[in-house]
Amino acid sequence: MKYIVVISIFILSIIGFNSCKEEEPVIEKPELSDLTISNVDKTSVNFAFSLLNDNGGEISEIGICWDTLDYPTIYKNKLELELESVEYSDILINLESDTQYYLRAYAINSAGTAYSQPIGFRTKIPYYEGTIVDIENNEYEIISMGNQIWMSDNLISASLNDNTDILLVEDATEWSEATYPAYCWYSNNQAENVEDYGALYNFAAVETGKLCPTGYHVPTIEDWEELEIYLIENEYNYDGTSSGNKFAKSLASKEGWTYSEIEGSIGNDMSTNNATGFNVYPTGIRNNVGEYLSKEYASSLWTSGIVDENDAYSIDLFNSNPAVYVNLNPKVDCFSVRCVKD
Fold first, then answer.
1. Which helix (H) or strand (E) holds 193?
2. What is the structure's pLDDT at 7?
3. Which DSSP symbol is given to 54?
4. Which of 158, 159, 201, 204 has the highest local Cβ count within 10 Å?
5. pTM listed for this prediction
């Protein structure tokens, strides 16, 4: 009996010892927030995400991975980030332009690799880097958008492409009566406007069909519609959507516009303007009585679209609006001119 008691006490001691031991914690894969992206450009994108929980395991690696397939993994393209905090943000560079990508955040601990949900985006179209010259040897940068090539500077020529002079008209009364091709500089100040803003022309200059450099023309309404469709379909709207007319910021310069509190408007966060490189400055206009108006607030660009003997169409951008407008104007008004390749 003595031996039985001793053995029983020993067994009970083992059971008691084991029951006092703490259970080992279960380590699971990390938990990540959804990934957000911003400032999608031709070859780069900004991203941000959070490490929500390490789930009991020390994080050995964290970063993002990307691919042209919709579920990227760390085994192809990845960017490892320094282990510093729970909030992570950076910029991914050296991407291919005009390409659809998918991006995921990842984190690794002893339980394995965790991924965020993938997010897709398309890098912007590349600029066509080149120049053309007009009859006076003024040089203009040109860019490619879709199947079109556009000047990214406003016209400044004082001559038609057959070397015929365009008359400079500064007097307001003379301007209001001009039925011949004429041009001017805002506030009659060439030095202040020639570099970024360009000259202003009446529609009589447009109607000659010879205002643009040879091989280029003042855009038709159809040219603008083609550009609008391309930009919307390729998500140049300020909010990244592919429907609705909200792409004015993508055409506007990053400076010069009056501030606006309206979200998505040209004057709101100008650092996000000019995604296309079209670089429209707020040139202002000269109206049909010779007054100069709206510099820093608006830009009007002639089309070659004629309504009747008195009126024609322009394309208009405003500091306080996300949209691009087509408007009807008297032909004696004085607007900027952009040219598109034939």
1. helix 190-193
2. 46
3. -
4. 201
5. 0.68
Q: Rounded distance, CA 256 to CA 196, Å? A: 10
The domains of the chain, with CATH numbers, are 31-122 (2.60.40.10), 130-341 (no CATH)
For residue range 17-50, what is the model confidence (pLDDT) as tens digits?
Answer: 454 455 678 899 999 999 999 988 878 999 999 9
Instruction: Say which residues have a Cβ less than 8 Å from residue 240's Cβ, sequence separation at least 6.
Output: 40, 121
Place of tokens 């490619």: 144
Residue type, 289: V
DSSP state at residue 2: H
Rounded to 5°, angle at Cα 24 from 22 and 87: 125
Question: Collapsing DSSP states into helix, strand and coil, what is residue 148?
Answer: strand
CA distance 233 to 229: 6
What ranges make up the beta strands (E) of 13-134? 31-32, 36-38, 45-53, 61-67, 77-81, 87-92, 100-109, 112-115, 119-122, 130-133
Q: How far apart are CA 68 and CA 337, in angstroms?
A: 39
CA pair distance 49, 33, nearest whole angstrom: 6
Instruction: Report the b/e string of 242-260 with b at 16+ CB within 10 A.
Output: eeeebbbbbbbbeebbeeb
